[in-house]
Amino acid sequence: MLVGKDHMAYQNRVVAADTPPGRAAIRLVLLVDDSKLQRCILAALLTRWGYEVMEAGSAEAALAKCRARMPDLVLSDWMMPGMSGPEFCRAFRELSQDRYAYFILLTAKSNKTEVALGLDSGADDFLTKPLNNDELRARIAAGERILVMQRELTQKNSMISETLTELQRVYESFDKDLVEAKKLQQSLLRERHRKFAQADVTLMLRSSGHVGGDLVGSFPIGNDQLGMFALDVSGHGISSALMTARLAGHLSSTAPDQNLALERQADGTYAARAPKDVIRLLNNLVLNEMQTEHYFTLVFAIADLTSGKVVIAQAGHPHPVVQRADGTTFQVGSGGFPVGLMPGVNFDQFEVELSPGERLLILSDGVTECPNMVGEMLEEAGLEKLMADIRDISGPAYFEALIWELSEFSGMDEFPDDVSGILFEYSGAA
């Protein structure tokens, strides 16, 4: 409490108060002091500065007022009957967790240990008595700046939280759509295994994400031929998957009139185009009609089920692999140029003769370029060993074994790139 000359000097400084500090964040001030006179003096000063003032004669009464209405600034005496200023500050902080208020302790103590105790209780600042009006104004202005920054931060955090919630909602919706898109893309493989009298053909498509840029397929041509294609669109994700869907329409088994690999004959039947001509038509289609920056690699083959002869055109796709009946393997093809990069490109084709018990394997580069835990790729040598290990397996089980062996090599269940393939197993005439 202030007495005598100290009280007179304090009252004179109150009368000398002038321009109020800014009040963007501080509007309501709570005065807590057991001295009614000091509360009256400070309340007059703060009201003159433009603040709304609440008063409490004890910490307990102050907490009751705070529960009803939270202040922006608290000016609390240190020494009070009952709960002290630091104790009140701790209780106030627990009460005001959602909305931060600036807390200044008023004390005659100047000992550093006592000051540290006050700050540890949760106070933001302290002022020694008797109060100086200019110093009080400066401390309130400092509190104003801190509260402005704190509330701006709170507002921005709230905006970030709302944005993250909205992004999560969008992601969940997007993820749901991608799951459906994956189902649709997988449905492009109408038959993953088909058995003919002279051969079996098995297809595999495994995307690295929800959807991918790989696609494999087959379709019969008359009674004695089978068309097969394996393609890999550049990039990953939705745009690549959309392009595979469009390309699937141009190599469709259910719409022969739209299948670029087929030519309608005068009698209404369909004959096969040469594989190199099919790739040339697709190259022109991509460059002239599809407005896209994507390109793709492709192997297109036509197998004669009666003779075992396979005519193949290769456009940048990994080399097909032939496995003889004794388990030996060798690659065929010369590589070629990808589809959709340059006009006027000439594509070549070659022939492979399969004997009964031999197979043709066409894989995407997601197999040979699959890395292990130290970054080493499987490559062609690793593929040959892998094929040797599973040589006695056939049909759909062959690709299951291949994926298992690839997982063992890479140490991963999910691969960094799409993995797709065609297995053509020739058994000869029935």
Summarize this structure as a short list of keywords or feature phrases.
430 residues, Rossmann fold, Phosphatase 2c, domain 1, 2 domains, six-stranded antiparallel β-sheet, five-stranded parallel β-sheet, 18 strands, rod-shaped
Count all strands and give the number: 18
The SSE order reads HEHEHEHEHEHEEEEHEEHEEEEEEHHHE
* Biggest sheet architecture: 6 strands, antiparallel
Low-confidence stretches: 1-23
Distance between the termini: 113 Å
CATH architecture of the largest domain: 4-Layer Sandwich
Protein name: Serine phosphatase RsbU, regulator of sigma subunit
GO molecular function, one term: phosphatase activity
Pfam families: Response_reg, SpoIIE
Keywords: Hydrolase, Phosphoprotein
Description:
With 430 residues, the protein is α+β, with helices and mostly antiparallel strands. It folds into two domains: 153 residues, Response regulator (Rossmann fold); 239 residues, Phosphatase 2c, domain 1, CATH 3.60.40. 38% of the residues lie in helices and 23% in strands. It is built from eleven helices and 18 strands. The chain has a six-stranded antiparallel sheet with strand order 6-7-18-17-14-15. Strands 2-1-3-4-5 form a five-stranded parallel sheet, sandwiched between helices. A hairpin with a 3-residue loop joins strand 6 and strand 7. Helix 3 runs parallel beside helix 4. The longest helix has 54 residues. The radius of gyration is 40 Å and the shape is rod-shaped. The N terminus is likely disordered.
